[in-house]
Backbone:
């Protein structure tokens, strides 16, 4: 790993060059590098936490001056209970994952002695733009090395987009990077495979380098992702919005409906996979909705109801509860509240629910609660989202819960990788052909011409 | 299929809407639509060829006036031997391919009664921008319907980019589209699933509709692809350049070297998978290169040689041959000649060859000719191209030759799909979770908390 204040184009060229070496290293060499990073970081805990403490002092002062939000200060803190240990454990977890490089996914005998093979390989150069969390550096370095991709890291530190004037690199970023850099010196992974760019105000330049950088991964707020998606031709992996919905159909189990909706809304309201819109079938308004609403209100959720749902709840709920119901306006159904606010809308059929989700949702994760299997299958086929779930929480959409070991992010893209993205999302493939001098002119439909065999081989 | 002169945004919205219906149709419904198209086109041969003849008359006149190239006139001609039959056969070929929709590619038991499944589904809405070939309409309509994607087709007719003033739709485009449209009326495939946009000068507007259009597929010249790649945020599938190289190592079989290099260069010089640069190992200069050069010269190939290769050939070849050798300049190694011109460069090692290809190539298809298996494997791992081939022609890189049945194009992208792209490249996936009321709050490391099982299930 190197810290560089080189020109962005030079950093990107160096990364492309290093990516070619990294792509050919065997599993053991990449795993050994992760071991070396783990050991070095363990041994340097005191100096890194000291650097982090200096960052925190400065950040707290900025928060007092009102130039920085307290949540950014909190994210910066590497001394928080369990954070350091989680960071170190994450490196070993990634090391233990199956090697995603070199997996054969197709093998065809084109002809005698002419074999085609499709084999997974790294994408090339990743650009990771991340907000205040210093542990992202160790996390991304591990993922990149494991997957054979070079990575350029650009921290936003305590800067807030789209203003670039602030402090983009903090002392903790630099301290962690220096330790990783020194650790890599003892390995065969090129030091320029992972670079922390410390040059200021270069994000627009980095985003323009599509001839060297193959994929951008923003790690941070919706605002960060939205800014990046609108500022580059390089493919961006991630999602700007997580506007998830639940459709409550009248045959759903009442107790389950309460549990699942409460979990989807309240277990982590700021998460992208939390529910934002509850679509209630008309036939559920007076039966299923009232206990769900009571449970949500008891958890402090604000309900923004359309006229029908508000009317039904006003009749069914205690006056104490119904008085705090709010009126939804149209914008509530297009808003990712990221807080304890839930929009409630009445729909007459599953078709209307599906249509609402496909138009107003963000294609992230949407759920149906019903006892009807055919209805659930119809919903899951028709809703155009990365995740479609039946009788469970929208918050299940998560790389760890899916068993992917780690997660680069959750993608709402329509190509390459969708939903929670693990190491597989950092891979592409190449076709290898091993021949014995065959030429295309020998094959064809004329007399004396050969035909391709196209025999699928096991792999 | 509909012909529309609607606003681009309305066409795109209609396509998005139709894509949702199309995505849920069973295999049989999509295949039946292809049968209906095939029957209808067969029955309308005379009127379509008559329309095409009128286009040809107008195009020939334009060619005489010097406003149109003769190659465009030739591409427009649907009456050329075998072209009509190939177009019709293509529809049935696509119909017979395995259904790419609904394939399960991962199945995990997250917990008892909580199953995760990853299943292939269509991407959504494709925008196909195509040059003069009218048969592309039937071809793309088949591929789109088979893969469950809606498609917006925009023909350039006899217009040449980047000037939009010309005639973008020809009578043949309209005639074919009308027949397909009428055929689809009798099927459950929505007519707006396939739309031919006849509105003039709307390509820039279409390319701006990234909220409705998920993928752009340009079918035409390098110039067309390059223009489109630089004009849209929508992902583009394809390649602008095909700068393929062959590395001739000194242990290569001499007779094989001649055959393979001649095939790679001369079997279709205008194809993207033809070789443009021959990298000759120093040790091959006086042994392998001269017979290769003789064979190429005999086929009319112009050799643009660096100093070392020219010197070696001047000594070894007959004066008659050596006098026609040309001097390469640096730009020859960055040029896709697309003609009977080959750049020849001397390299001292495989490392130098790999480095040259990674820097100067277009990451399309590159070959090594050698008797050494370890060297070949090293080359194939290290060259960062969609196709890496050993002891066979670069021209093997082709969807038909790979056994994919059909080909949307050859991609040099680093994400999603690389190399020859068949129906699989038009698919993405979604995650489906089928639960029984499980919530995320039940799982964790605290006492009484459950753990995920993450058991791989067969599929």
Residues:
């Amino acid at each position: 790993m190197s810290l560089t204040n080189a020109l962005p184009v030079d950093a990107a060229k160096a990364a492309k060059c290093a990516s070619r070496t990294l792509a050919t290293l065997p599993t053991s060499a990449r795993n050994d590098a992760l071991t070396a990073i783990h050991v070095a970081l363990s041994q340097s805990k005191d100096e890194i936490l000291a650097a982090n403490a200096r960052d925190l002092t400065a950040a707290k002062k900025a928060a007092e001056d009102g130039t920085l939000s307290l949540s950014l200060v909190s994210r910066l803190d590497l001394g928080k209970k369990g954070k350091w240990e989680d960071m170190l454990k994450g490196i070993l977890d990634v090391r233990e994952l199956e090697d995603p490089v070199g997996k054969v996914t197709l093998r065809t005998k084109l002809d005698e002695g002419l074999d085609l093979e499709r084999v997974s390989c790294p994408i090339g150069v990743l650009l990771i733009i991340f907000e205040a969390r210093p542990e992202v550096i160790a996390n991304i370095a591990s993922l990149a090395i494991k997957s054979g991709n070079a990575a350029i890291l650009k921290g936003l530190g305590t800067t807030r987009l789209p203003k670039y004037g602030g402090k983009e690199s903090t002392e903790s970023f630099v301290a962690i990077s220096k330790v990783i850099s020194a650790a890599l010196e003892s390995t065969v992974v090129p030091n320029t495979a992972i670079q922390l760019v410390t040059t200021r105000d270069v994000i627009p330049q980095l985003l323009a380098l599509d001839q060297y950088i193959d994929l951008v991964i923003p790690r941070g707020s919706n605002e960060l992702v939205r800014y990046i998606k609108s500022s580059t031709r390089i493919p961006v992996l991630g999602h700007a919005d997580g506007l998830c919905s639940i459709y409550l159909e009248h045959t759903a189990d009442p107790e389950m409906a309460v549990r699942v909706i409460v979990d989807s809304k309240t277990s982590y309201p700021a998460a992208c996979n939390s529910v934002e819109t509850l679509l209630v079938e008309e036939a559920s308004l007076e039966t299923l909705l009232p206990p769900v609403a009571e449970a949500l209100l008891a958890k402090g959720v604000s309900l923004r109801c359309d006229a029908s749902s508000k009317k039904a709840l006003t009749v069914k709920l205690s006056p104490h509860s119904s008085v705090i119901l709010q009126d939804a306006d149209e914008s509530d159904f297009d808003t990712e509240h990221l807080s304890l606010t839930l929009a409630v809308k009445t729909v007459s059929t599953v078709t209307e629910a599906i249509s609402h989700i496909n138009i107003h949702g963000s294609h992230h994760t949407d759920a149906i609660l019903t006892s009807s299997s055919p209805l659930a299958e119809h919903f899951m086929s028709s809703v155009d989202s990365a995740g479609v779930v039946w009788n469970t929480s929208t918050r299940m959409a998560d790389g760890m819960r899916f068993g992917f070991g780690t997660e680069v992010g959750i993608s709402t893209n329509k190509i390459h990788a969708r939903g929670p993205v693990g190491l597989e999302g950092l891979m592409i493939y190449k076709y290898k052909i091993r021949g014995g001098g065959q030429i295309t002119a020998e094959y064809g439909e004329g007399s004396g011409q050969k035909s391709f065999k196209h025999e699928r081989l096991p792999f």
